[in-house]
Amino acid sequence: MAPREVVIVGAGVMGAAAAWQIARRGDRVTVIEQFEDGHDRGSSHGASRIFRLGYPDPFWVRLGCEALEVWHELEQDAGLGLIVSTGSVDHGDAAQVTEVLAAMDAEGVPVELLTPGVAQQRWPGMRFEGSVVFQPGGGRIASGAARLAMIEMAQRNGANFVWDQAVKAVEPDGDRARVVLDDVAFDADAVVVAAGAWCAGLLQDLAPIPALHVTQESVFHFLPADTPSWWPSFIHHEGGMTIYGLETPGEGVKLAEHHTGPQVDADTRDGMVDPGSRERIVQFVEQWMPGLVPVPATETTCLYTTTPTEDFLLDRVGPVVVASPCSGHGFKFAPLVGRMIADVVDGHDAPERFRFAR
After folding, report:
1. CB 328 within 8 Å of CB 218
2. φ, ψ of residue 284 in degrees (nearest 5)
3. Which residues contact 108 (CB under 8 A, 6 or more apart)?
4. Mind listing the pLDDT tens digit for each residue in 269-321?
5. Comparing 1-47+142-211+308-358 with 86-138+213-306, is the CATH topology the same?
6. What is the radius of gyration, based on Cα positions, of the chain?
7. What is the spatial distance between Cα 164 and Cα 264, in angstroms, rounded to a whole number?
8. Which pLDDT value is given to residue 230?
9. Domain-wise residue ranges, the chain
């Protein structure tokens, strides 16, 4: 079969993963990104992300196991390590921790159930109460390096990246489509829209996507105090609040709330850290992270684009493939989602729970 022309809109992690996976199958790939390479206006910037299998739903545990295999493929292709196995910890609310433990048990994931005393001996920079679940295979992703590796692998397979060019419209025409920029247009056999917080504006009436909730989340880094510690990635469950943390080498320990930021418009957001979030995270550090100086060393914001179910979106309408948004927890699955996107371009179905309601 002759190579197809595939245009990908968006060069965040999902667009980069799709480019790598589609180009390695022999199609001609063009990726169009509205901002410069490495920008911080979306959801994919920063040097570290959590990799974990600790979900309360076996579906995500299973998907994480599959994703890890594809991360290793990327590491092998790129010739560098991207996953650091620090282990990951779930602690806090007993009912929520029990759900996470049950889901990992159901999928046969090796875990340890620790007492607070044993956990604190292992990680003296942290405090614990109640049950602690440790998943040795968890850790962190060198996320900035990972996205660049995907781009490099795509380019080695012939993909072309166009930076600083905003897509004005995607125009289906039968079984093909046109991607319109200011001064040029690209005709394609398939168009993958992986534009995150900009998806809804680009798709408009092209696809039956659900209502998307775009929020601006605040992220902080704290420096270690005098207490030596090996920092695992962790999730602290506390009622309706979830706080996550992981080490970012050279920057400190990254901490943030999950899904608490204000709703924003991707083009007009102010990029200002939420003072309430800062106060809550500092209080969390004071209570639960004695090994950290309780003053943020750095702080920034990022965008979450969330579906009503917090599932991903991956489906196709004619020549247009909608890929992402990923509801604030997609980075760890990116290489696998890239493969799923390539499969959808090839005519296969995405997982049922990622498809549009028909």
Report:
1. no
2. -60, -45
3. none
4. 999 999 999 999 999 999 999 999 999 999 999 999 999 999 999 999 999 99
5. no
6. 20
7. 22
8. 80
9. 1-47+142-211+308-358, 86-138+213-306
Strand-pairing partners, residue 221, are: 254, 298
Q: 43: which residues sit within 8 A by CB, 6+ positions away? A: 12, 13, 196, 197, 302, 303, 304, 305, 326, 328
The angle subtended at Cα 306 by Cα 304 and Cα 312, nearest 5°, is 110
How far apart (Å, rounded) are the C-alpha atoms in residues 90 and 113?
10
Q: Tell me if 71 sits within 8 A of 83, measured CB to CB.
A: yes
Tell whether domain 86-138+213-306 is in CATH 3.30.9.10: yes
Cβ within 8 Å of residue 60, ≥6 positions away: 103
Q: What are phi and psi of 155, to 5 degrees?
A: -65, -35
Per-residue pLDDT of 242-269, as tens digits, reads 999 999 999 999 999 999 999 999 999 9
- Residue 332 CA neighbour count, 13 Å, CB half: 24
Give the list of residues 6+ apart from residue 201 with CB closer than 8 angstroms, or none. none
Q: Which H/E stretch holds residue 170?
A: strand 169-173
Q: pLDDT per residue over 71-98, tens digit each?
A: 999 999 999 999 999 999 999 999 999 9
Which CATH code fits 1-47+142-211+308-358? 3.50.50.60
Write out the DSSP string of 294-348: SS-SEEEEEEEEE-TTS---EEEETTEEEE---TT--GGGHHHHHHHHHHHHTTP
Judge whether residue 358 has pLDDT over 90: no
Tell whether pTM > 0.90.
Answer: yes
- DSSP label at 198? G
